[in-house]
């Protein structure tokens, strides 16, 4: 009987020690834990079409699109956009090595070797950063810009333009100009 009570007391002691060690784990506050900040969704070979009255207006393509918790989209390997006129003809293109989308504002950012081509006017805009406001159909930057036309090369710092580059305004203009007197 004594031996049996000894075993029971020993077993009770061991079980108490095991359970007390298990209860010593730190309970951590979830608000103080390091949160995952990476993408919640990642898509490959993305094509997004924007239309108006069943007419294609904009086609956006990207090798990778990542979406984050707040709805922000990122194109870490760049993106390419085609703008179409009301007749469905390709009017201009936009390309950047990196892109970011803020869907609540309909605002896109293009960075790194950004090039906009106006195919109708045969003009090319080059810069390192450009913002595209899709809802206003405008592009703008405060960075250095270079516009190459069939007749001249314009450079400056800062630009505001229609998204198709049909009309633009350079803020601090430098470069070579040709003036036609009529």
From TrEMBL:
GO terms for molecular function: lipopolysaccharide transmembrane transporter activity. Signal peptide: none annotated. GO terms for cellular component: plasma membrane. Gene3D superfamilies: Lipopolysaccharide (LPS) transport protein A like domain. It comes from the Bacteria. This is LPS export ABC transporter periplasmic protein LptC. It comes from Pontibacter actiniarum.
């Amino acid at each position: 009987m004594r031996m049996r009570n000894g075993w029971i007391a020993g077993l009770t002691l061991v079980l108490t020690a095991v359970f007390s060690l298990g209860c010593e784990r730190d309970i951590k506050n979830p608000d103080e834990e390091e949160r995952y900040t990476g993408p919640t969704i990642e898509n490959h070979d993305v094509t997004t079409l924007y239309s108006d009255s069943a007419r294609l207006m904009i086609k956006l393509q990207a090798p990778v699109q990542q979406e984050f918790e707040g709805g922000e989209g990122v194109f870490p390997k760049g993106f390419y956009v085609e703008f179409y006129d009301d007749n469905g003809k390709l009017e201009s293109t936009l390309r950047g090595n990196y892109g970011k989308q803020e869907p609540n504002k309909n605002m896109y950012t293009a960075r790194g070797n950004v090039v906009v081509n106006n195919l109708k006017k045969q003009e090319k805009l080059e810069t390192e950063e450009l913002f595209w406001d899709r809802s206003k159909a405008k592009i703008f930057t405060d960075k250095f810009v270079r516009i190459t036309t069939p007749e001249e090369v314009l450079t400056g710092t800062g630009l505001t333009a229609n998204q198709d580059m049909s009309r633009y305004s350079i803020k601090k203009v430098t470069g070579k100009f040709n003036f036609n007197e009529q």
